[in-house]
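Table S2 (text version). Query chain:
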Amino acid sequence: MQRNTILFSTKSYINTALLLGRLATGFLMVKLHGWSKLMAGTYRWEGLGSKLAQTIGLDFMSIPLGFMASFAESIAAILLILGLTTRPAAFLIAFTMMIASIKKLEGGLKAAELPLLFLLLSLIILLCGAGKYSLDHRIFRKEK
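Corresponding structure-token output:
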């Protein structure tokens, strides 16, 4: 009996798993977190960026840093869903979630659970790439 049938091959499921991971991560991020922050404007951005701006000693950067976090959680999340510029988008989300995790860890591990999960998912996508079912693959694949 041949063991390399499609039923036992993990290769046949990798691209589907990457697609599901990108769709779930991107959709949950943009729908539940990113879009509302992006649309809220400068007051919300200032609140988001103030902790990092204070930490690095550049208080005047709180609005731009907050906007970048909002951008990562919305526009980069949409790029994840599409599988377009996937690795840079995943990096932006991972970096944002790293900062959010550090900030939330002050309240304990339970408080940081959600940003840590998004950090892990975005790191997996960053390392693995978009997969075959993506615009990246369709646009940038090299013909053999």
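Notes on Table S2: Residues 19-140 form one domain. Residues 11-40 form the longest helix (30 residues).
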